[in-house]
Each structure stands twice: as C-alpha cells, then as structure tokens.
Amino acid sequence: MVPDTKLRGKQKQSAGSSFDERPNDGADPTLDWDGAYAFILFIAMLFIVQLGTYGAVIFSLLTIAYAIARRRMLRDILRGRWFLLVFPAFAVLSTIWSDVPLETFKHSMEFALTIFAALALGASRNRRSVLLGMFAAFAIYVVVSLVVGNVVDVGTNGVRAVAGLNDSKNEQADTAATGLVISVSLFVMGLRRRSLLQCAITAVAAAAEIYAVVAALSAGALAGSAIAIATLGLLLLLSVAGRSMRATVVGVIGVGAAAVALIFVAFTSDVLEWLATAFGKDATLTGRTYLWGRARDLLAENRLFGKGFGAFWQQGNLDAEGLWQFAGITNREGFNFHSTIYDILVSLGWIGMIIFGLTLIVGLASVAADYVRRPTLAACFWLSMAVYLLIRMPVESIGFNEFYFSTVLLFALLASAVGPVRVIAGARKFHAQPAWRNGPVRAGGSSVP
User: Which residues contact 29 (CB under 8 A, 6 or more apart)?
Assistant: First the structure.
C-alpha cells in the first residue's frame, strides 16, 4: 500500500507539470510502432504528389494494417470519438445528390479513411513517439524541398519565392510552418529530458523550417506559426498555475477567438482590406476574393446540401475549368477555393458547414478542458497546433482534403482529448481513459491504491 499523503503528493506534482506526457512516461520507449505509424503516414502524405497512386496505396494499406493490429482497441478508439465520424459520414452520404456520384463516393471514402487514420493517431499510447515520427517526416520533407525544390515568380516585379516540390509557395510555407510548431514542441521536450542531442537536432530542423517559410514569402504561414509558438509558450507558463487560473485564461481566449470569428464574418471586406494593407498584399489576397465570389455564386445553386464531396473540381465542369484557367493551372486538377468555409459550402452546403462547425466546437472544447485538467506537453502541443490550423482556415483549405497532412492533424488533435488507448498489463481488455485519470498500473491489471 502507498500512503495516501505520498500518493496525493505525487498526483499533485504530476498535475502541475506540463512536461509529463504520461504518469508512466519513463516506461515508454522513445520509438515504437506508434511512432513508425506516424512517420510512414506523414511521409506518404507529404510526398503524395511525387508518389502518386503509390502514396495513396501506402496510406490506405498502413491504416488498414494498423487497424487490424489494434483491432481489439477499435471500440475504445471510437468510444468518446464517434462524433468525429459524423462529418465524413455526411460526406459519404452526399453521394446521393452529387453531380458525379461515383467520384463523390470514391473521394468521400478516401476522406473517411483519412479521418479514421487521424483518430488512430490521436488515440496512440506513446505520444512522444508519435511526435518524433511526425517531426522526422516534416524535417525530411522540408530539407528535400529546399535542396531539390523549385522557385516561382511572384507578381511582375521579379520577386521569386521558394515553391518546394509541388510548385506551390503557399503549400511549401504551410508545410514548413506546421513542421516548425512540431520542432519547437520537441525542443521543449528535449529541454525537459535534458537531451542535448534532441535539442540540437530540433533546433537545426526549426532553423531550416523558418528559412523555408520566409523564403516562400507567405505572411499568413509566418504569422500563424509565430502565434502558435507564442500560444505554446503561454500554455507552458500556465501549466504551473492553478486549475482555476488555466480555466479562466483558456476561457477568455476562447471567447476572444469567437468574437474575432464573428467580426470576420460580419465585416469580411473591411477585415480583408486591413489584412492586405498590413501584410503588403494586393486587395484581392492573390486572387482569393474572386474565388470566394464564385463560390458564393455556386452555393446559391444548392444552399443546403451543396454539389457533393469532391464533385466540383472535375474536368469537364465548365465552372471548374474557368477557375483553373483563371489560376493558370494547366494540369486542371488539385485546386480549391483557398478557404475552408467556402470549400465546405460548395461541396456540402450549409448542413455540412454546420456539422463541421459543431464538430470543431465540441472537439476543441474537449481539448481545452483536457488541458485545464492536466496540462501535459501533449495537450500544449495539440492546442497550439489547433491555433495554427484555425488561423489558416479562412484563407486555406484545412481539414477537408483526403490524404492530406492538415486533415490528419486537425482530427487527430480533436481526438486527443479522450486520452490514449492503454493496454492493462496482464489483461486482454483495452481501456480508453482520460490521461489525467491514468495512474500507475500493477502487473495483473490492478491499479496501485
């Protein structure tokens, strides 16, 4: 028996430290199958253009294999996370009213598989290993894109930007900025573990990622990553404060974010004009305002249900062909409205938008509550990543593309609040519990009293 006073002291110490990923963190290996799963999954997504169909096959087979290997945990993975499947289910349902039902069924099933892969990632037991796997994938991609990637002209004044492997400066900046948030989080973890090697490696990777973001000339990605890293620092500082203080600050930030969102919706034109002036952009935000205007016209054709998931960007669709020509996309594929809201509205209508919005609200509230209860480094990382993705949503397509890293990250962070799926030693049953409730476990399955 452990004396109650000693146990309470240990629990208090654990609850007050943001760097304790898990109570039994020391028992977890640095790398395991969870980390390998994350690494291969993100490598397949980041290099999807170069790998082509092989990338989609690798992603699909890996997810199916992971599900089979963890088949006894599937029920626990979905427990508490089922609401995250409502949105992809509605995407599959849109096959019924789609303009091109076969294409919608294909893309929506791929999207549903992507969401399931994200849920499995968010429920992973060894979250440090998952973070290392993601870090390695993004670091490799950024280095390769800087070494062998391309540059593109920006405007007509001779300015050139790094466009990476896919000839898209926005995608290059978004990928590098996402990797930067991951690298900084791992750097903090290295400080906690007093691992000079980990700190050195992540610092070098972060430097390369900062250069990639700056060289891509993307003010949005640079600002988003800076705010996300600042948020990470704030969350780490609050981790040593009391629970009531964390709840107050997180609540104020949540209300402030909601107010900003309402202001953006109510005064979109004025906000966009101010942003364009502040970041030295043209008034159209590089053609986005025209795309959004066309999206509003298309939405009027079916406000409730939209055209069906993946149904609009099809060769032969005159509206899509016109936008491809406007954007100078000669291969006539792989485009979007550069806005999560408009992408969802055109494809799934207002009903789809409401489902997506409710999913975000419920998921983010759960992630925030999980941080307030137990401010682990994992919770700090996921919340800071949420800030980055939310900042990018108005001007980029986030969480609405199959086999894409931002989709996996968004739904993985929404799934993370339920807590990792754990295997109780000596038992055949698997249990999903919030991380703050997971205590030391004896061999044989009984908890330490």
Answer: 126, 129
Residue 161 phi, psi (nearest 5) = -130, 150
pLDDT band at 425; cut points 50, 70, 90: very low
The string over 70-101, giving b where at least 16 C-beta atoms fall within 10 Å of a residue's C-beta and e elsewhere, is beebbebbbebbeebbebbebbbbbbebbebe
Give the Cβ contact number of residue 368 at 10 Å. 21
Q: Which of 419, 441, 437, 439 is nearest to 79 (CA)?
A: 419
pLDDT, position 365: 92
In the predicted structure, residue 5 carries a pLDDT above the cut 60? no
Q: How many CA atoms lie within 13 A of 230 on its CB side?
A: 6
Q: How far is CA 373 from CA 16, 250, 410, in A?
A: 10, 12, 21
Whether residue 46 contacts residue 39, with contact meaning beta carbons closer than 8 Å, is answered with no
3-class SS of residue 9: helix
SS3 at position 355: helix
d(CA 264, CA 395): 12
Give 164's DSSP letter: E
State the pTM of this model. Answer: 0.85
**Does residue 183 surpass a pLDDT of 80?**
yes
* Mean pLDDT value of segment 339-361: 95
Task: Give the integer Cα–Cα distance in Å for 26 and 356.
Answer: 38
Given a cut of 60, whether residue 9 has pLDDT beyond it is: no
Token pair listed for 409: 């990250």
In eight-state DSSP terms, residue 375 is -
* Residue whose structure tokens are 């199958």: 33
Kindly report the number of other CB atoms within 10 A of residue 384's CB atom: 26
pLDDT of 422 reads 52
What is residue 161's three-state secondary structure?
Answer: strand
Spatial CB neighbours of 191, under 8 Å, sequence gap ≥ 6 = 199
State the Cα–Cα distance between residues 361 and 368, nearest whole angstrom.
10
**Residues 6+ away with beta carbon under 8 Å from 82:** none
Pairwise CA distance, residues 221 & 174, whole Å: 6
